[in-house]
Amino acid sequence: MSETTGTERATTDGRADDAGLFGDLPASVRFEFDAASRFARDAARQYQMCLDSRDSDGLPAHRPNAWALLFGQPGHTELTISGIEFVPNVRGSDKTVIAEFEAAIVPRFGEAYRNPERGFWCDERAVLAAIMRQAENGLELLGSVHSHPDWHEVGPPHERHLRLSEHPTRMDEYLFQQSRWPVNVIWYVSGGDAGAIHRVAAWRAGPRQCERLDLAMPAALHDEFDMASARS
Amino acid sequence: MPDDSHGVVTVRLPAAFHGLSGGRRQLPIEGGTVGEVLAGLGQACPGLLERLVDQEGAMKRYVNIYRNDNDIRVLDGLETKVEQQDVIWIVPAVAGGSRPDPVWES
Lengths: 232, 106
What we know:
The complex is a heterodimer.
Chain A: E1 7-9, H1 19-22, E2 28-31, H2 33-52, E3 67-74, E4 79-85, H3 95-109, E5 120-121, H4 124-135, E6 140-149, H5 151-154, H6 170-179, E7 183-190, E8 197-204, E9 211-218, H7 221-224, E10 226-228
Parallel strand pairs in A: 2-4, 2-9, 6-7, 8-10
Antiparallel strand pairs in A: 1-9, 3-4, 3-6, 7-8, 8-9
Chain B: E1 7-12, H1 18-21, E2 26-31, H2 34-44, H3 49-52, E3 63-67, E4 70-71, E5 87-92, E6 95-96
Parallel strand pairs in B: 1-5
Antiparallel strand pairs in B: 1-2, 3-4, 3-5
């Protein structure tokens, strides 16, 4: 149950408490409604675009891919996410990012990552501009959120033996470890034609693998979206 | 005689380095180039320099350094000169991936 009025606390396992990486930063994250609902709408829109793009064989032409920067403030007991910014993805257009994938990502994680639709990399100048803009509101960049679809249901038939979830992929873990942002949210969308169900979890790098953070989502989000708790 | 080639700049640090900076988000550091500023930053915050440059002294790809709003990669890299009251922004990359893995058991 919630420690905060009007808020559902979704997860509690595996507290990330490695002081060496994150000092005294809390291992609890709370989304404010506007930030959460703006991302949920974008993730649901992307998911629906994927469903609508399927051909008669079930092959989707659109790969759902939502991502955003998370801005907020660290408190004594939790990190509050009160702003998000959508920035361009330069995964397939920035030559240095493409080179990084060729040099470091493909050898570690496989040929599939040559596909520029795999993964995202935020435009770095846009990130700086967002940081400067949000600093005027007293907010700082705390990390990012990106969506995972239920690819085993809506992906191309030849990829349906693989699954995504609200857990990080190995590639997510690698990138979270490299960048060390304290909040990395994965927003899993499933449900297919019956309607999008949202399952959300927050992570940060740990000494060996990513560690799950306590995540609190606003209860009012249930009025607008089908929110499933990541864990009971 | 004062050294005009050095100035005090403000280094803005991200939450990603919270543990290494002792929670500080900005520090005044003296130096004539970005490289000198980072060396000073490394002295003020042990362990932080290793997050920014590799063993050969080259910038790591997962971190971006800006002199004001200019990426130093398109200036002179770590040799980029700095002036009094410049702001040096350090911003790690924001990235992720979504290729399906074999399912996590939960």
